[in-house]
Known about the structure:
Blueprint: H1 3-73, H2 81-111, E1 120-122, H3 124-140, E2 143-148, E3 157-159, H4 161-177, E4 181-191, E5 195-202, H5 236-246, E6 250-256, E7 260-268, H6 273-279
Parallel strand pairs: 2-4
Antiparallel strand pairs: 1-3, 4-5, 5-7, 6-7
Helix pairs in contact: 1-2, 3-4, 4-5
Amino acid sequence: MSDSDALRAEIDALRAELDETNQGVLALYAELDNQAEQLRQASELKSRFLSYMSHEFRTPLGSILSMTRLLTDGLDGALNVEQHKQVDFIAGAARELSDMVDDLLDLAKIEAGRITISPEWFELMDLFSALRGMFRPIVESSQTDLIFEEPRNMPRLYTDDKKLAQILRNYISNALKFTPRGEVRVSATMEGADRVRFSVKDTGIGIPAELHEMLFDDFTQVDSPLQKRVRGTGLGLSLCRQFAHLLGGEVGMVSRIGEGSTFHVVLPLTLAVAEVADAGE
């Protein structure tokens, strides 16, 4: 065989090998596309299931809460002390379950890309006043002080105040749960010229260092004696992170065992229009 024939045979062999490799790559791409489609369908089914079940739970929960209010108001006759205690227990359990349902519904909306961002101008003091009123009944029956520091020289904000309020509600609620006595302090300070840092600092039990990196993941909960007495989905902090990202911001925390924790969210003073459009896609 001449040198040219040998070279041609080698080229043909290489071409055949490349063709075989290309076929393998194409088959791999097809398999990856198939798996990606299966994952997309599974994710869509999960979101639809969460949304459906959340809506289905809302009606009976609303009925339970309405009935407990009727019993507490004594419209069908006065309750004795023990009956009041039992009705309060039922109402408390129903509210906890309602909060869990709300978290699951929010998760389903975010994963389905159907969350709505509605920014508007508002004063920070109005937000703090609303949060103070919301937590007053809880604080009055506890040994923990809830303190809102007056924001000084803080301009008006343009963002979704309801999503921001939900982030801060989750932070404050967690802080109160894990601070049997002491204080929870809420503050807002400028960070640079165009961002604001909201912080919720408590003097509670603190969080182990090995949990810090995973706290904002889905279904993560702190393992402690206090956690066993309070129920939740473990979605609260995960939703805080996702809401913060939708608002163009970021979350974080620092904590030491026995010294308390500080959770923060940093947001732009003015939410960009592009970010609002992206959130609705």
